[in-house]
Amino acid sequence: MQVQASQSFLERFFKLSEKGTTVRTEVIAGFTTFIALAYIMFVNPNILADAGVPKEAAVASTIWIAALSTLMMGVFANYPVALAPGMGLNAFFAYYVCGVLGLHWTVALGAVFFSGLLFLILTISHVRQAIINAVPQNLRVAIGVGIGLFIAFVGLKGTGLIVSDPATFITLGSVLKPETAMSLFGLVLTGALMAREVQGAILIGIVATTILSMVLGYTPVPHAFSDVISTSLPHMGETFGKLDIVGAWNYGILSIIFTFTVVELFDNMGTLIGLTAKAKLVKKDGEIENLDKALNTDAVGTIFSAIFGTSTVTSYIESAAGIAAGGKTGLTAVTVAVLFLVSLLFAPLIGLVPGYATAPPLILVGALMMSEVGKVNFADFTDGLPAFLTIIMMPLTSSIANGFAFGFISFAFMKTLASKPKEVSPIMWLVSIAFMINLFMRA
To answer: Which residues pair with 163 in a beta bridge?
Structure first.
C-alpha cells in the first residue's frame, strides 16, 4: 500500500501519465544520465585545482551544487535535465581568469556570483525568454542538430576513434587499442538494443561494457571495502562562502563578467532548446513548457555555485542520454540528484566506470538528434548558411555558444544584405552585436 501511495504521489506531482512515461522508465533514465555525467565529479575538481582551489573541497562543491541544482530543476521545472559545473566555463575560470589574468580563485568566484545575479535579473525581466522566443525556427532546428554533432564528437573522442593530428587536426585512432575496442563493443551492443527498442538500452550497454572491461583486466575490479565506499566524505569547508565579491567589483572585471554571462546564457539556452525538443516539451506554437522555471533554476544555481566554491553551473547535454532512455519529466532529474548525493559515499565505485563505457551513448544520442536536420531550410541560402554555421561550429570549436555566435551573426547580416531586413528582429540584432563584442574581446 505504501509503495502504491508513493507511486501515486509521483504520478500526480510529475504528471507521468500525461507525459506518457512511468516511474520505472524515469528512474532508469536518471541512472543513465547520471552515469553519462559522473565524469564531472572527477574532471571539474582537477581543473579547479589548477586554479588553486583545494581539491577535496572542489570535489564536494561539485557534487553538492550538481545535486541541489538538478533537484531544483526536477521539482521546480519538471525537466529531465541535469545541471553541473559547465565544461569550458570551468576551463575559462581556471586557465584564463586565474591563469592568464592572475586573479585569485576567490575573486573569480565573485565574478561568477555577479554573472548569476545578472542571469536572474534577465530571467525575472523575461529578457532571456524573449531572446529564446526571438530565435527563428530554422535556427532552433540547427541548434539541436549542432548539439547532436557536438555530443557525437565528444563521444568519438572518448572512444579513441578520433585523435589529434598535427597535420589534419584530427584523424582516425587505432581500433586495436583496448579502450577503443571496448567502446566499439558498447556502441554496437547499445545500438542493437536501441534498434530492438529494449528499455534501458543505454544503461545496459554502459554496465555491460564496464563488466567486460573488468573481466578482461582493462578496468580494476573492486576488492577492498575502501574500493567501494569512502571512509571519509569530502567536504567543502575550504571553499564555501569564500567568494570575494568586493575584490571582483574593485578589479573592474566587467569584461570577464560579460564573457561568463554571454557564454553561459547561450550555452545553456542552446542546450535547453535541444533537450526540450528531444523530450517533447515544445508546444505546437514553438513555446517551451516551464521555460521561466528552468531559466530561474539555472540562474539560482549559478549564484550558489559561486557560494559553494565552484565555477558556473549549467544544463548538461549529457541529459540527452537519459532522455533517449525515456526520461520525460523531473523525476529523471530527481533521480540524478539523489545519485549525486549517494556518490559522496560511493565515489570510488563510480570512478570504476571507465570513460570509454560512457562515450558510445553520446554517439548514439548525437545520431538521434541529427534526425532533425531534414527540417532545416537549405533552399533559402539566407537560412541555410546561418543554420550550417550553427551546426558546424559547435563540434569544431567544442562550444555550443560559438555555434550560436556564428549562426546569429550570419543570420542578421545575410538577411539584411539579401534585402530581407524585416526578418531580423531587434532582439536578434542586439544578440548578434553582443556576440560580436564577445568575439572581439576574446580575440
So the answer is: 171
**Torsion, Cα of 131, 136, 139, 145 (10° steps):** 90
d(CA 111, CA 359): 33
Q: Which of 7, 74, 20 is nearest to 332 (CA)?
A: 74
| Pairing, β 83-85 against β 313-315 | antiparallel
pLDDT digits (tens, 9 = 90+) for 327-376: 889 999 999 999 999 988 876 666 677 878 878 888 888 888 888 888 88
Q: Phi first, then psi: what are they for 144, rounded to 5°?
A: -60, -40
C-alpha 320/C-alpha 215 separation (Å) is 29
User: Residue type for 128, please?
Assistant: R
Burial class of residue 23 (count of CB atoms within 10 Å of its CB; 0-12, 13-18, 19+)? middle
pTM of the full structure? 0.73
Q: Which amino acid is at 399?
A: S
Give the three cell numbers for residue 280. Answer: 517533447
